[in-house]
Design brief:
single chain
């Protein structure tokens, strides 16, 4: 059971007191039963009835108190455990190699850390009550055994026979729940795709209709599976109900026929069996919640197992900030495709980047420029060769320190209002950048956040560049940064901003297609089909 694996690993030590509380609640619940049964035998004894009434009222008050306490503690501890799971998964995603994360899919990881854990959060309180119900059933069976050993044997026999039918229904429900979860995940992805391509869908009716047809087909499949689930759940519920009624009938009809039993014992035994009905119904009705939690736990664990253990290869702090040269030494990375035809290799690459220089990475689309950048950043693990700083290879345990040398603006960079990972904002540097990038009339700083990111594409890229520069890293990497800028600001970037950054000692590595400004670089690296060639004396193309 994946849910049990999850809770056992992350929360069992904190759940043990909850289990004891649940057992105590069930014990108090049994006191209610025994006080009522005692009253049935003492209907003509006024003082005894008064005493039993007092016991009943005190038990009811204690049950209410313990029940509230149980649910309060359960909620607090389970939420803490789920919070730890969320942080653990995000730490694994950050610790894993980038290809591993992309293979899993950021959307799936976000769903596992969000919606899936939310489903667990909603289901766990119901499961705690279910455990309490199981404890109540066990205690009622012990009480029933104290009344009549034959009665408890009859009940257990019926429960075992009914359990076979119930188990078969439960297995079918679990399979349907897994199938429904898969369809819902697929529909979410397809719906997200439509919402992200609204403009394209409005401009192409065939595209819109095809996308909606896919959604409609998935929705119909989901409807059928949900209907099948409802039908199967009805059978599951009826099997449980009939099992209960047959157990009750067994006491009333079989017990007197199999052994000499007085009426009082039959009545008390039947009442004890009837008292089991409520916890049984609680367990039955909570089963869909359990299935949802089990499916969510399975999805969470499947993603977690594909990501690196953050404890593996603990990082060692290394100071590379005084570097003079960064190098790729015979470095090779291969994208694994579907079969040999889909693979793509960059390298072996040997090159050096001197501190304080401006390096342009050029080449046709698909030539391997972005892969080269990811290799240089240490985001793609090398299958051969090594990264080096001042002639010394960077060991795996120092890779985090190596990556700390870089600030990056990717071509698809996501800009947030919050400024994370930046240094001092009180020295006027941020205001200088707002003026340099000519966005001071559009956005300002509010503490450690931008006042807005609702800007044009080019302006958001400028904002991303500002955030990267505020990190004050010695190396700045830009991936097609100028592609979204106006001709005026593109020229300003190459003729004013790049020299400004170089004057401040920043090493700039930029992927670019702007051949008219190739002379703004100190070094030009031309990438062709995964091979890298250093071109001498970059010059603008006439």
């Amino acid at each position: 059971m994946d849910l049990w694996r999850l809770l056992r690993r992350d929360a069992l030590r904190r759940l043990k007191p909850l289990l004891l509380l649940a057992f105590l609640t069930a014990a108090v619940n049994l006191t209610l039963l025994t006080s009522i049964n005692g009253a049935l035998l003492s209907l003509q004894d006024g003082p005894t009835l008064e005493r039993l009434l007092l016991v009943f009222l005190l038990s009811a008050f204690l049950w209410r108190f313990v029940q509230n306490w149980l649910m309060s503690v359960a909620s607090k501890r389970i939420q803490a455990a789920l919070g730890a799971l969320r942080m653990g998964l995000l730490r694994r995603a950050l610790a894993a190699e980038l290809p591993e994360v992309m293979a899993v899919g950021p959307a799936r990881i976000a769903a596992a850390a969000g919606a899936e854990l939310q489903l667990l959060s909603q289901a766990v309180p119901t499961l705690v009550i279910s455990f309490q119900s199981v404890a109540a059933i066990l205690l009622c069976l012990l009480y029933l055994a104290s009344l009549s050993g034959l009665a408890v044997m009859i009940v257990l026999g019926v429960l075992m026979l009914g359990g076979v039918v119930v188990a078969r229904c439960a297995m079918r429900l679990e399979a349907l729940a897994e199938e429904i979860h898969g369809i819902e995940t697929d529909l979410t992805e397809r719906s997200d795709h439509i919402l992200k391509t609204l403009r394209e869908c409005k401009l192409n009716r065939r595209r819109r209709d095809d996308a909606l047809a896919d959604i409609a087909a998935g929705t119909e499949g989901l409807r059928q599976d949900r209907h099948a689930f409802a039908v199967q759940y009805s059978r599951y519920f009826m099997a449980n109900e009939l099992t209960y009624y047959f157990a009750l009938a067994g006491i009333v009809f079989l017990l007197p026929a199999l052994a000499a039993t007085d009426v009082a014992t039959v009545v008390l035994a039947a009442h004890a069996a009837a008292f089991i009905a409520y916890p049984v119904i609680t367990i039955v009705t909570s089963y869909p919640s359990y299935l949802g939690a089990e499916t969510a736990a399975r999805a969470y664990l499947a993603i977690e197992e594909r990501l690196a253990d953050p404890r593996r290869g603990a990082a060692v702090a290394t100071d590379f900030s005084g570097f003079h040269t960064l190098a790729l030494e015979d470095l090779t990375f291969r994208h694994a495709g579907r079969g040999a035809a889909g693979s793509f290799t960059v390298g072996p690459v040997t090159l050096a980047v001197e501190r304080g220089t401006v390096v342009f990475v050029t080449g046709h689309n698909g030539s391997g420029k972005s892969t080269l950048i990811h290799m240089l950043l240490g985001l793609y693990p090398a299958q051969r060769g090594a990264l080096a700083v001042d002639g010394a290879s960077v060991p795996p345990e120092a890779m985090a320190s190596y990556r700390d040398l870089f600030s990056v603006v990717f071509s698809d960079s996501h800009v947030t209002r919050q400024l994370h990972g930046v240094g001092d904002l009180e020295d006027g540097f941020a205001e200088e950048l707002l003026d340099l990038l000519e966005i001071g009339d559009k956005v300002a700083l509010d503490g450690r956040a931008f006042t807005t990111v609702d800007l044009s594409q080019g302006q958001r890229k400028r904002l991303a560049l500002m955030a990267a520069l505020l990190e004050r890293k010695p190396v700045l990497v830009l991936d097609e940064w100028a592609a979204d800028q106006s001709p005026y600001f593109r020229r300003k970037f190459y003729r004013e901003i790049l020299p400004w950054m170089k004057a401040r000692g920043i090493t700039v590595i930029a992927v670019t297609h702007d051949d008219a400004y190739f002379d703004a670089a100190d070094v030009q690296l031309q990438v062709e089909r995964g091979s890298v060639l250093r071109l001498p004396n970059p010059v603008p193309v006439a």
